[in-house]
Fold this protein.
Amino acid sequence: AHTPSTAPAASATTPGPAPELFTWEFASDPYPAYAWLREHAPVHRTRLPSGVEAWLVTRYADARQALADPRLSKNPAHHAEPAHAKGKTGIPGERKAELMTHLLNIDPPDHTRLRRLVSKAFTPRRVAEFAPRVQELADGLIDGFAGTGSADLIHEFAFPLPIYAICDLLGVPREDQDDFRDWAGMMIRHGGGPRGGVARSVKKMRGYLADLIHRKRADPGDDLISGLIRASDHGEHLTENEAAAMAFILLFAGFETTVNLIGNGTYALLTHPGQRTRLQDSLAAGETGLLETGVEELLRYDGPVELATWRYATRPLTLGGQDIAPGEPVLVVLAAADRDPARFTDPDTLDLSRRDSQHLGYGHGIHYCLGAPLARLEGQTALATLLTRLPDLSLAADPAELRWRGGLIMRGLRTLPVSFTPVP
Ligand code: HEM
């Protein structure tokens, strides 16, 4: 007979029903569902909210393998469901084929060529030289609300900082940057749907960038767009379309991700007071070590990119014991892999001093984030400046009431209300 006294042992080996994915509850805390999948269905076929079927990969070892597996293509033309692949550029609201040739949609040898060319212009040195400007941006934005004692940190800080930073880096003149802020705002508010406003914003941005590339070709400066036009490798250059697609992907890959690094990171600090105090103390002592390991840990603990961008099997393969057929899409769940207890000690604990954090928050393999040095600079500057200038910063909402965006690829808050002692 089945008695309650034997139930605990039985339930420890019998998984309950698979958790429901992509609900509102899931969007606010997907980690319990990911823990279930990692344990019971590590390579799991699911139907996405769009109706498309895809494999979700949730264990660290499988995720790392999949991210670097040449049998998994980034080219949407390999998707077996042609309706899905048609015109898909990965850019919200964008259906135009000209922008198809960006890094996250192509494989070697094209990817190798384009990545080598962009790396000649988007160098670690360019990023390092940009540090004073990022500091100036962070301070200027905080000046805007420091006297009031309250703010929505998403709209007043996390959102504008990366858009102004990337505009400056690309060489968009300051007087035009508020247009970019508006266009980007439209896209982040309304997500990737084909709604009119988003499509119009993308069209305006595309037109503006094409025009800017023409102008920079005639009158180059020391900005990144001029660098992209100038970059050559064995006599090869980027075509005008490739330069436009590159400017676009830098903008799209570098914008919402960084908003969410600052937003999720600040939220994690405000809800882990012990860790936050340690960081504040170390900053007050003029140290940067904990800030550096801390930003990596925040990326591992609750990173901006929940699922890596799409991959499609080009040949039959077996991943985590599961057979995957050519044409089937594979989504690597970075947020699940980075909480895998087989890889990280106490994975659900935030530990800013964690040193072995080879997290997958920036991906892995040939598509590893090109903008990681810039993202680190922005994340470290933003968090250090906030905690230093507004030392008693606190959350002004019940965490249960905060709303998460619930997009497929990105994880981030809609708003982050805070309060603090006003600083004149
Ligand atoms: C690729 C994360 C910021 C530019 C990626 C990938 C991830 C990622 C996970 C790989 C996607 C995949 O393999 O499917 C992040 C995070 C960021 C961030 C978490 C912020 C915290 C930036 C910034 C830029 C940027 C600031 C540039 C301005 C790119 C580009 C790629 C990429 C161009 C494509 C690289 C390739 O395919 O070769 N990023 N990113 N990212 N990221 Fe980032």
Remarks:
- The chain is about 50% helix and 10% strand.
